Structures are given as C-alpha cells and as structure tokens.
Amino acid sequence: MVTISVVKQVLDANDRIAQENRRLFDEKGIYVINLMSSPGAGKTSLVERTIEELRQRYKLAVIEGDIQDTYDAERVAALGIPVVQINTGGGCHIDANMVREAMADLPLDGVDLLIVENVGNLVCPAEFKVGENDKIMILSTPEGADKPSKYPLMFHESSVLLINKMDLMTHVSFDLTKARADALKCNPALAIFEVSCKTGNGLDGWFAWITEHIERFKTRTA
Q: Is the dihedral of CA 209, 18, 47, 167 positive or negative?
C-alpha cells in the first residue's frame, strides 16, 4: 500500500507540471508529440523523416531523451533543427519536469511542432505525461507481434501506432494481423500506419495525419 501511495504521489506531481507545460505550449501555439518505443524501433529515423517532410511548411524543435550520450541529438542537429538532449542518467523515461527544464534552452517562439523523443522503453513513458497533445508509438517488426498483449498501456495511451521496418517482413516472423488486432483491442481509436523509415514506404499516411493535427491545433489556438 505504501508503494502504491508513493507512485500515485509521483504521478500526480508529474501531471501538475505537465498541465503547466501544456498551458505554455498552448499560449505559444506549439503542437507537441511524445514519441515512444522500445530501443532500436526507429524513433530517431522517424524524427529525421518527419523533419525532412515538414520543415518547409513548419518550424520544428526536438527534445531528445536517452539514458546517456548525445548521438540522436547530433543527428537532429545535423539537419539544422533546434534540439536539446536530456540524459536521464539511468531513468527509464522523460518526465514533465525534465521537459520544463529543457524548454529554457529551446527557441520556442514561432515553433509549430515540438517532438519529444522519449527514452526507449515500453512501460514507463506511457505513464508520465510531459504536456503533449498526442502520444505516438513505434513498434518494429523484429520485436514481434506480442507486444500489444504484453504492454497494453502504451497502446492504450497512444493516438498513433507506426509499425516500422516493414521492409524486413520477409526476414522476420511477425504476425501483422495479430499485431493490428491486439493493438486495436487496447485502443479501438488507434490510427495504425505500416511504414519503413528506411525506404520511406507508407510514411505518406503518417505525414498526412501529423499535418492534419497541426493544422487543427493551429485553428483551435489562433
């Protein structure tokens, strides 16, 4: 009971800061996504592809979360996009307070889309809000189709599921029908896109979805 009480206190405190972050983002007209997956599923590759597609239309910024190192942030910076690295030092997720502190190092004025790339983990990131509009999840085909059944909360909390590395389908044992069906059991409203960040196949659907939601948000906050 003590453990449950402490966890609830931590989540409640995080939610309060997340709400403060959200108010600031709304004031500045920034649409925010929280990008989650297990390690190696393709989060940074999706970030790069999304930047390349949207940069001519929108101003973007990125917060990168990792346990240590700056490799992913360097990849984003090489594209000329403002980026801040959060190293959790062993923590398995980014929380709202980390995002609040990172915002001080980003030029947020005029930003249309802020991408928060969370630490690779299928559990904790789903529990901790950071002030995002939507949680976005990537599942890669080498991981197996059992993940929606094993980690239902992340699928339940996400607005979008991108099934990545479809180019490897002939090389891995991945039951696409099962993965889709189990994910939709967790969240019937989940938008699912089958993509390859390596080849670019299937990404048009994701680009259309994110563009629609940015525009809808801009209209609501104008």
A: negative
Helix axis angle, 2-28 to 96-103, nearest 10°: 30
Of 76, 64, 191, nearest in space to 119 by CA: 64
- Report the C-alpha gap between 67 and 87 in whole angstroms: 5
Summarised one tens digit per residue, pLDDT across range 26-41 is: 999 999 999 999 999 9
Structure-block tokens of residue 145:
């189709």
Looking at residue 62, its amino acid is V
**Residue 51 vs residues 43, 62, 144, 205: alpha-carbon distances, Å:** 12, 10, 28, 15
Cβ proximity of 137 and 162 under 8 Å? yes
Domains present along the chain, CATH in parentheses: 2-221 (3.40.50.300)
Number of residues in the chain: 222
| Angle (nearest 5°) at CA 128 between 124 and 131 | 145
Q: pTM score > 0.90 for this model?
A: yes
- Selected residue with higher pLDDT from 11 and 7: 11
C-alpha 164: how far from chain center: 14
H or E stretch including 98?
helix 96-103
CA distance 70 to 185: 37
**Which contacts of 66-73 are long-range, i.e. CB under 8 A and separated by 24 or more positions?**
66/119, 67/91, 67/92, 67/119, 72/43, 72/44, 72/47, 72/117
pLDDT tens for residues 54-98?
999 999 999 999 988 899 999 999 999 999 999 988 888 999 999
